[in-house]
Amino acid sequence: MDDCASSDEDYYSPSDRDSLDGLENEDSDLQVATSKGSTAKVITRESLLAAQREDLRRVMDMLSLREHHARTLLIHYRWDAERLLAIFVEKGKADLFASAGVSVVESEDTGTSVSSSSTSVCDICIEELPGDKMTKMDCGHAFCNDCWTEHFVVKINEGQSRRIRCMAHKCNAICDEAVVRNLVGKRHPDLAEKFDRFLLESYIEDNRMVKWCPSIPHCGNAIRIEDDEFCEVECSCGLQFCFSCLSKAHSPCSCMMWELWTKKCRDESETVNWITVHTKPCPKCHKPVEKNGGCNLVSCICGQAFCWLCGGATGRDHTWSRIAGHSCGRYKEDREKKTERAKRDLYRYMHYHNRYKAHTDSFKLESKLKETVLEKVSISEERESRLRDFSWVTNGLCRLFRSRRVLSYSYPFAFYMFGEELFKDEMTNEEREMKQHLFEDQQQQLEANVEKLSKFLEEPFDQYPDDKVMEIRMQVINLSVITDNLCNKMYECIENDLLGSLQRNTHNIAPYKSKGIEKASELAVCWNSKSSTTTDKCLLFDCGTSGKRDRPFSFGSSDDSGCPSPQKRPKQESFGVSKLIQFLDMNPTTITNSASRATTMLFSNAGINMLDGNFVSKICLNQNYGSKLMHHQSLELSWLKRNGSWMDLVWKTPKSIRSVKRDGEFKVRAFTEEQEALVVKSWNSMKKNAGELGLKFFLRIFEIAPSAKKLFTFLRDSDIPLEQNPKLKPHAMTVFVMTCESAIQLRKTGKVIVRESSLKDLGATHFKYGVVDEHFEVTKFALLETIKEAVPEMWSPEVKNAWGEAYDQLAAAIKSEMNPP
Fold this sequence. Notes:
Helix content: 40-55%
Radius of gyration: 34 Å
Strand order of the largest sheet: 6-7-1-16
Distance between the termini: 58 Å
Largest sheet: 4 strands, mixed
Number of helices: 24
CATH class of the domain at 673-816: Mainly Alpha
Number of strands: 21
CATH topology of the domain at 673-816: Globin-like
CATH architecture of the domain at 673-816: Orthogonal Bundle
């Protein structure tokens, strides 16, 4: 429904005009006038680059900067140009630039080759190269083009393309995007386009004042606002939504209130509450049983008798004072209090929910009334009558829709405002009661006038004489003004008298606007050919054969390593393990290994970083490429522990360059009696919660490596939250139980046995989905963390080693069967 505008007049007299200026319709078909000077803008595919350049040009002109440095500053300050300029005035250019990674002194030869007449040594690969093979950044650091290129490729694939730092040790300068684009484009054109797209998307992903329209299917638009983010806007696709939480427009509820209310309605928690209040579980079959008589001896349909007072199982014989040798003990007052409290909470919830639903249903029915009313208007206009203007009807409908929606959402607001869930300690009982009376008085007035307005609009005025129509007309216009004023006063009451100083930062609400929810106007596209770069060629949206825009890639707020949209897109070659080894083979990497410690110097954002490698398993140190490189598996695990994102890069490696290392024929290693006792004891403690632990096990895997979800067909294209996916928990429990039970049987059987499957089948399945060593290591890490959390009192280095050894043997057995069919 589109929103409308209304007059600021407090009353109407017959001498006033027939149509109140600006009282527009809630529905687009009833639109009387369009809003002018909208502060919300629709950003389409065509206008995205123009919107970004508008902010870039402003900072470039104010601070006399190149585009690269202006973009770096804006990304650092989340595209808030006002804040950026305020910091510049307050702290000066040096502090502003230093915090964002911009070199204060800019070199004129930035991004150019070093003098070709001389040779230089690259500090990364330690090779002496001619100057035209070297490139220098703003900060003055120069490295060879090959090292720069591989550095850029790694960062783009890691999702750090918006802020790629210089390779020099402790240098925080951001690399020039033109240099990145130039060097990467020579070898990886597709990756260069991806880099440009990430820079373009940064304007939306990193910008607090710009968000994607949440329409489903996605319309392809983004919305930019100029003022307070706590507002409601309407996209050009017709969707009205809350800009803050991206749910449907819900004022006067705050975002937190609306989230809690929708969850309460969705979960049907009060139905469960009713069952808790009025029934008790049978001690045998555990089904809820309702008492329908006065006797406290209750019988379940399964045949079990039990005491209603305490829930304990009993026999069937009983007297006035005793039930089959059973005694409940003393009466417990707290149980009675809890029951009464649950009943009171249930009745309170049903009071607000019933009224919320009633007004929501009325809104839907009145929306259907539109066609009937317009038909009446059409008939009335064709009659010979002195009444020619029927705009009061469409204006009245508009006000009815708007007021009905405000009234509907006022009940969830009241439920939380005057309950104890959010503001228990913020108000005394007397203050709460006084505020509740104040609010309910205004709510009651609004409700009465909305019902009157609805009644008059339902009148068959097309069949009435002119005098009767004039009377209805005056009533509709008066009620339209009254309901608008009452809505406005209700919002003022909420903002000033109710919320006031009560957690206003948490419970901000979108302000009431007489003209209705603001329609975002399309951002004007003003192309500046002088500032055009190769970024102009970047495609943020893909167009299918239907001509409709697909939803853009969805990326996180801190980086661009999110999951792509469900639409099919051309596959892009990821940076694989083999290329990673080639890249790191050119960089100094030192390994020292002792019985208790491994210290590794790794290449990362800031050059060479020291990394404590206590967690690096011994098997990872088996391979050592001279003094430069240790086994890539160890490197990835180290990065996983430090950075949390490297594992995801490896998971996206194409199958063509994946591999699983096998050390000849698999043989079971000795599993000691002490190790067996430790795993048996801990498993006996865990198995009663195998379902929950299995789910935690898999959720931990997906937390470490989100891309692992792509290995499961029932998760790959599912929008259902992982915890609620009906297929994940059974599968997770099966895998968890299989893994644990294989450990228990390891010593007795002398071989690896898997439950409900075979090693051959598991090997074939793992081979089919391209599972590699890194996947097994992540799974092991998640398994040990899950067991540690499940049995903290039993956890010790010995328990960890026992479970680790058991899993290693299971993994080795599966790998031995990973052969092509």
